[in-house]
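W.,

You were right to be curious about this one. When I first looked at the sequence I had no strong expectations either way, so I just let the prediction run and decided to look at it fresh. Below is the sequence, 215 residues in total, followed by the output.
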Amino acid sequence: MSIRANYEKELSGIFQQLVLMCRHIETAIEKSVKALVLRDYDLAHEVFEEEKRIDELERIIEQSCLRVMLMEHPVASDFREVSAALKMITDLERIGDQARDIAEITIQFKCDEYVKKLEHIPQMAEIVTQMVKDGVQAYINKDLTLVRALDKTDDRVDELFDTIMADLIALIKQTPEYAEQAIMFMIITKYLERIGDHAVNIGEWVEYSITGIKP
């Protein structure tokens, strides 16, 4: 097998592992928020297993990327493609951590009745999950249009973040005894906002892999 053919084979394997990592992240976010909404603590614990698998895939992809860089002597465009994947998996792993953090907070609510209807948090989770999927798909398909749409989508995430925070601050002012639970919801909201930021970071590295312009 030629060096180029071997590189293409290795890169195809990296793509497959990235897609798998993305699926586990999607599942982790969905499970963490569904567990929050349904008060399903068994489901929350399942997120911990998803996060372990995400960490394992990060290590596998990292090893594959380094092997390609050391053995195949990639040209500039190949180097960008592989180094972008290395950067992306760092953001993806952190997203997995944040999904786990949401699950951990969910368990802390125990059986206490929620002080606020969960309306915007599931919306945020759905949007940021799609952003992560779009970022990985854009990398595989070299889709600059999809990448450049991430910033606009993130604006929607920021709007929801501001709405939720304003509602919770007003709630604390009106009923200070709800402050502890309101703060927990604020932390969850912040984790979702960070996931959106990580998705934007992924998009920036995808753009770098295509154009050579560093974020």
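Here's what jumped out at me. The first helix runs from residue 3 to 38. And, maybe more interesting for your project: Helices lie at 3-38, 41-71, 76-109, 120-141, 144-148, 150-174, 179-211.

Coffee later to discuss?

I.
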